Amino acid sequence: MKLEKEDILRMAEGHWSSVMAALVPSVDWAHLCARPDRNETSCPIHGGNSGKAFRVGKQFQVNGTTLCHSCGPMDGLELIRAVNCYSFPQVLEAIYEALGGRVVVPVVNRTPVAPTPLRTPAEDQQLRNYLGRVWNESIPLSHPDAGPARLWFRNRGLPGWVPAVDSVRFHRALPYRHKEEEIGKYPCLVSRVLDRDGRLVTLHRGWITNKGEKPDLPGDTRKSLPIPTDCRVMGAATPLRSVADDVVLHVAEGLETTASVDVITLGRNSVWSCRTAGGLANVDIPASTKLVCIWADRDRDQVRGNDTILGGAGLESARELYSRVVANGLTALMIVPPDAIPKSSKSLDWNDMLLHFGVTRIREHGDFATRLDAAIANVLKGQQV
């Protein structure tokens, strides 16, 4: 079955609260929908300082319409695309996945209402069972059969790298579905996404080839499984290295970028992958942390209405996290790739830097040594940077 825009909108009608909760988790949709004529919050696109710029529209449960004083009105497709920097096909596929990867009977309700679960308790249990089965079928990256996974990381300048904790595994042949069709079974990297209490929220999957390369498959080959009703993905992350009671935490977006950070920092501190720009902006910081090192992606500038977002979603999310960390009385350090984005690329991250320069040259860079090593040393001494 080929799903087009009209199919997705028809499926999502009456379920936009749940769709938005999954794909734009930085917003408290239950709060907005409880009093759509009054309740407001910060815009998930441009932020703002008042906390009163953004609300749901009268047709929210019909088409996901929202209103922002700065960005203007948007339907659900536009908002999800802007917040996550998705292409239009990725938006359609993300909504389809948020609806559980199945056709949902439209609920015609012209008045915004509080979110209703898409799954029954029995369906939630089936989902948990599937999450457990996929994880148990997967093997550590050090396993003899996990060669494609090791090739994947070697091809990205990370030979021999494995996570210090059991958070990333390799599945020999995980089914790949595009819309309602199973395309086949392919090698896949499987990452555990955990909440602040260490509870499994979902699994993030990234399909690869047996040669450790990107597969030629339709749709986005990196996607998360649905989330149980009683879990929240906002704030969750994939720990690649966890040091008990560590006062230093390194955070970055994607798996390969974060693995590069683990290598660059010589495995001395906790390192977490937040998966996306939105995940980075909203990650929960442990109580023991004193210094948060934010390894930002440098994306191309984005124009939103009359505003230009310098550094795109990558730097915007890093700045948002930086502000939140400092507001909470902690020390934050933003570490941004110093080079310009190549003309052939959409962004520049720390895996790109590692591939180009190598660990030694990065660590010998004066700015790196001065800012990062000094910041860590000062925090360990109990000093403020």
Automatic annotation (TrEMBL):
Keywords: Plasmid. It comes from the Bacteria. Residues 128-225 form the DUF7146 domain. It holds the Pfam family DUF7146. Residues 249-356 form the Toprim domain. InterPro entries: DUF7146, TOPRIM_dom. This is Uncharacterized protein. It comes from Ahniella affigens. The lineage of its organism: Bacteria, Pseudomonadati, Pseudomonadota, Gammaproteobacteria, Lysobacterales.
